[in-house]
Amino acid sequence: MIQSEGMMDSYYEQPDMGVIGGFGYREKAMEINDKNLRAFRNDFMKAVEALEEQYDVSISMGNITYEEERFTAKITVNKGRDPEEIARAEFDANVWKFAHLGLAPGMYRRVFIGYTGERYALIGLNTRAPKYPLIIARISDGEVSRAGERFIKTLLNEYYQESVIIPKAALPGNDESEA
To answer: Most buried among 5, 39, 48, 138, using CB within 10 Å?
Structure first.
């Protein structure tokens, strides 16, 4: 191998000029721990704000798992920046997993009558939660909770034909009244 001044003998050799395989490196790498990963997440989210603006997308980072020498995280990019539209699209994309309950696309924020006569809106699905996969909001006070499949099965069998979609203007806290 012919070498000129400053060339490396090996790809992995660390010459005095601070280069490993052509990439700059730091003398002291980040210590991977909870505190530094929280800071990394914050810095990452600040760094991608420009990309969100440029491409009109919403970028989120999932749970970070780590070992001594590395960490991983899932990065999700959703089209658009409106949280309501993103939630609706996510609901419609995952609702097929709950077809056995009578759920279908377009049922995001559908209102159902509960056992006690209270109204609930179906606002999300947690496909990884085997016991309580449905995310519901009580209409009277907006309290969000999780529900099991039995909850929605019972409601659909008894009240599905009578359920209504309540316009946002009719929700508590709005000045407009139902006509």
So the answer is: 48
The candidate with the shortest Cα–Cα distance to 162, out of 103, 111, 118, 120, is 111
Q: CA 136 to CA 12: how far, in whole Å?
A: 54
Q: Are strands 23-24 and 111-113 parallel, antiparallel or unpaired?
A: unpaired
Please list the residues that pair with 124 across neighbouring strands: 135
Instruction: Please give the model's pTM, rounded to 2 decimal places.
Output: 0.59
Q: Is the pLDDT of residue 25 over 80?
A: no
CA-CA-CA-CA torsion sign (80, 84, 90, 93): negative
Please name the residues in contact with 52: beta carbons below 8 A apart, sequence gap of 6 or more.
Answer: 58, 59, 81
Is the CA virtual torsion 163, 167, 172, 176 positive or negative? negative
> Is pLDDT above 50 for 10?
no
pLDDT tens by residue, 66-107: 999 999 999 999 999 888 889 889 999 999 998 888 788 888
Helix, strand, coil shares of the chain, percent, nearest 5, are 30, 25, 45
Q: If we measure between CA atoms, which residue out of 148, 147, 146, 141 comes closest to residue 118?
A: 141
Q: Which residue has the higher pLDDT, 28 or 37?
A: 37
Among 8, 3, 29, residue whose Cα is nearest residue 20: 8
